[in-house]
Design goal:
2 copies of one chain form a homodimer. With about 150 residues, chain A is α+β, with helices and mostly antiparallel strands. Chain A has one domain: Molybdopterin biosynthesis MoaE subunit (Aldehyde Oxidoreductase, domain 3, Alpha-Beta Complex), CATH 3.90.1170.40. Chain A contains 3 helices and 9 strands; from the N terminus they run βαβββαβββαββ. In chain A, a hairpin with a 2-residue loop joins strand 3 and strand 4. The two termini of chain A are about 25 Å apart. The interface between A and B is large, with 38 and 38 residues. Strand 2 of chain A pairs antiparallel with strand 2 of chain B, so a sheet runs across the interface.
């Protein structure tokens, strides 16, 4: 346990460990969102993915999102981790865990977190398809000129 | 790993193990909701809780909810577990995990599950306060005559 609130790592992510970090006496609700590598996208087969990040900037943006959540839902504890490097099918790319006194805020803050990650965190995804490969911008603001991917990760 | 989709148990619940059960090649999103025992409710201090269930009926109702989710969001995998017996502050009372191809459905199905659990699953909660104790109906339909608790767990 490194005590960090947000981080980017090449190591596998452990949802159980991340959930334990947000568990606390004054929370009754924990919501987590986990993004995993899906095999098929619109009938196209993914073999594996490669995520690349500028870690210092990615962690700065993740921290910004945690701060935004604290401002919007005071009393929320947020932990977020994103993996980089090669990820195989079913591997976990991102884990968000939030704890709140009551459940409404846990769902709202968790959803806010994943939408903001996709908007502002500089992490790029290279899809290795059965028939080729393609870099996919994972966010909206940081890659002007690349069309926004509407589809959920 | 017992292979069950829903269950009621006196044993501690492991979110990581439950999440691993819904992880699959055709899902890109996993949402989990975890209800934990909170220390303070409106300034009143809880020492511990005691949950009681009629397990066969509780599991039947949990399975009904999983079936409702499959009907409403086809292609969703749902696992739900509820703990009974004495639970201390920060202990996990309930874990819901759902996996879906895309994230919209994961949030919707997870939220649906916890609301339905509170509506129809016959599990009762005894609050042991600093200054007394109180049985609290945990659902709406199965205890007519007991006012609905609007407050989230």
């Amino acid at each position: 346990m490194n005590g960090k609130q947000v981080w980017v790592t090449e190591e596998p992510l452990s949802p159980g460990e991340i959930i334990s970090r947000v568990t606390r006496r004054d929370a009754g609700a924990i919501n987590t969102f986990i993004g995993t590598v899906r095999e098929f996208t619109k009938g196209k087969k993914t073999l594996y993915l490669h995520y690349e990040a500028y870690p210092a900037m990615a962690e700065k943006k993740l921290q910004q999102i945690a701060d935004e959540i604290e401002k919007q839902w005071p009393g929320t504890t947020t932990v977020m981790a994103h993996r980089t490097g090669r990820l195989d099918i079913t591997d976990i790319a991102v884990v968000i865990a939030v704890s709140t006194p009551h459940r409404d805020a846990s769902y709202a803050a968790s959803r806010y977190a994943i939408e903001r990650i996709k908007e502002i965190v500089p992490i790029w995804k290279k899809e290795h398809w059965e028939d080729g490969e393609e870099w996919i911008g994972n966010q909206k603001e940081t890659k002007p000129g690349v069309p926004t991917k509407e589809e959920s990760r």
